[in-house]
Amino acid sequence: MALSAEQELTLVQDAIQALLYGGHSSYSIGGRSVSKLDLNALFTREDLLLKRVAREAGGGMFRLAKLTKPND
Length: 72
Prior knowledge:
By secondary structure, this protein is mainly alpha-helical. The protein is built from two helices and two strands.
């Protein structure tokens, strides 16, 4: 099942919070290294998803404006 942009955004923001507040980006155990998600990659993905969610909600960068001519 594919996630919506809003659902994925929540997951990305949760991952960012986990790394910022107590999570480690990498560690070694018994000579083996393990790396978690890259914080910069998460910020990049978050930015893309924020724009997608705004666009889907109708709050995109461009909006249609209705201009009227004033009555004389």
